[in-house]
Amino acid sequence: MWNKDFLLGVATAAYQIEGAATADGRLPSIWDTFSATPGKVLHGDTGDVACDHYHRWEQDVDLIASLHVDAYRLSISWPRVMDAEGNPNRKGLAFYKRLLKALRERGLKTFVTLYHWDLPQHLEDAGGWVNRDTALRFADYADLVSRELAGLVDAWATLNEPWCSAYLGYANGHHAPGKQDIVFATQAMHHLLLGHGLAVRKLRANDPGAQVGIVANVGRGTTNGGSAADRRAAELFEIQHNNWVLDPLLKKQYPAALWELWPGAQPMALDGDMDIIGAPLDYLGINYYFRTNVVSDGAHGFTEVPLAGVERTQMGWEVYPQGLYDLLTGFKRNYPQLPPIYITENGTASDDKVVDGAVEDPQRIAFLSRHWTAVDSAVKEGVDIRGYFIWSLMDNFEWAFGYERRFGIVHVDYATQARTPKRSAQLVKRFLADRARRE
Ligand code: PNW
User: Fold this and answer.
1) In the beta sheet, which residues pair with residue 357?
2) In the predicted model, is pLDDT for residue 439 greater than 90?
3) Angstrom distance (rounded) from CA 354 to CA 65
4) Mean per-residue pLDDT, 388-396
5) Per-residue model confidence as pLDDT tens digits over 50-108
6) Domain spans of the chain?
7) The organism sits in which domain of life (predicted)?
8) In this structure, how many other beta carbons lie within 10 angstroms of the beta carbon of residue 428?
9) 124, 161, 238, 318: which is the annotated catalytic residue?
10) Which residue among 18, 42, 161 has the greatest number of ligand 1 atoms within 8 angstroms of its CB, and so is best to mutate?
11) 364's torsion region: left (phi>0), alpha (psi -120 to 50) or beta?
12) pLDDT at 200
């Protein structure tokens, strides 16, 4: 797997790194509103400045190139490139054109996500993803961006992690817009997926040379309980996390078990929607972080019971590389239509220590190497995996956890915006230099 045909990259997202929240006519997004609402984000942190990447992008392109990675995954900020009437914001578009050209000049492949959670606030004010019209607005946005940036992108992704947008945004309220109603969440998911399908048509028409896909976060669910109900609970966990998104995309239907879990929460769908949603994909992006242990809740669902004595990260997430192997091989078994896969995110937050001026992150180094082994094993089992992106290039705004949780292989000192490659980044760089020598 470790040859230059298997892409190794680093990933970021617009709201998490760009800052410049009001520059050049950028409109507010739901994350500006959410992070400015007291109690929503740890320490009241916001993305107003973040890593100031909007102003420091040239230096950041140098940084990415210095790692010798093959590819860079970024996202476009919808409220930066389109005004409330749907007209282009030329300054915002020019930023991404400059950035993508610079990446291409360095020989980097570009993976561009259209929606990494920063919905324009004016669309949320009109109902957000619960409103079917947002799917149509998303297709307009995809149309604009793919006409403007055609030829500069190797692989488009429509959405990043629709599960997070729908469930964390509209059911448990941990993410923007902070709504708490499962009926909203299932409707939001349907419109996210519909928006995806409509956007796929625009991307293919406007940029025929690029790959078109979507990115889903997947979680492994297991149980330490002994009953059949507990085993069913673990299945339901995965149905709720993974199949809620993957079945519509790859089987053109929602898993029926969802409506046992959430009676009465079926979304309103129109004739033809599932065919739009299930349009063929060139690739599927998979983001994997951890395993969740569950038992039966005694009714039709599951309850999480954290396992004791396992290794956890700065997020409290269990380190469980086996889960990535289990999921990848399971998808190959269960989805005849499974397209080629890129691991579009994997990585860990850790509490790094500065020792003699170097940033030491031993937990991240072990995490990455164990997950690479899991991916390698899945490739050997015949799963078609074409690349792997580390989340993240650099420390950034970790959503509800603000700046306290650090996922970067490059350390960011937010007071000075100094970027310092951590030990993990040095290892990645050395690994890729060795690979280049072998080729
Ligand atoms: C992903 N969960 O978010 C996102 O794509 C990134 O922007 C983010 O920084 C990264 O993973 C680390 O969190 C997730 O609760 C957030 O299962 C929450 C979950 C999964 C992914």
Assistant:
1) none
2) no
3) 24
4) 98
5) 999 999 999 999 999 999 999 999 999 999 999 999 999 999 999 999 999 999 999 99
6) 7-438
7) Bacteria
8) 21
9) 161
10) 161
11) alpha
12) 99
Nearest to 66 by CA among 363, 408, 393: 393
**What SS3 class is residue 306?**
coil
**Residue the block writes with tokens 């629709």:** 162
424: helix, strand or coil: helix
State the DSSP code for 115: E
287: exposed, middle or buried (Cβ count in 10 Å: 0-12, 13-18, 19+): buried
Kindly state the average pLDDT of the residues 262-276: 97
Reported as a single tens digit per residue, the pLDDT across 299-308 is 989 999 999 9
Residues in a beta bridge with 155: 111, 211
pTM of the model: 0.98
75 in contact with ligand 1, CB cutoff 6 A: no
Nearest 5°: the CA angle 188, 194, 198 is 145
Shortest-distance Cα residue to atom 14 of ligand 1: 164
Q: 356 falls in which pLDDT band (50, 70, 90)?
A: confident
Beta strand 7-11 with 418-421 is: unpaired
Helix, strand, or coil here: 10?
strand
Closest CA to 296 of 261, 247, 323, 254: 261
d(CA 180, CA 74): 29
CA distance linking residue 15 with residue 32, whole number of Å: 9
Please determine, for residue 354, whether its predicted confidence score (pLDDT) is greater than 90.
no
Asked if residue 61 lies in contact with residue 106, where contact means CB atoms within 8 angstroms, the answer is yes
d(CA 369, CA 388): 12
| Pairing of β 358-360 and β 353-355 | antiparallel
Handedness of CA 313, 315, 317, 320 (dihedral sign): negative
Q: Which amino acid is at 15?
A: Y
Known binding-site residue numbers: 16, 116, 160, 289, 391, 398-399
CB-CB neighbours of 376 under 10 Å = 16
Per-residue pLDDT band for 2 (boundaries 50, 70, 90) equals confident
Indicate the average pLDDT of the chain. 97
Two structure tokens written together for 147: 């006409």
Residue 345, SS3 per DSSP: strand
ipTM: 0.94
Q: Are 407 and 349 in contact (CB under 8 A)?
A: yes
Atom 7 of ligand 1, nearest CA residue: 13
Residue 1 has pLDDT above 90, yes or no: no
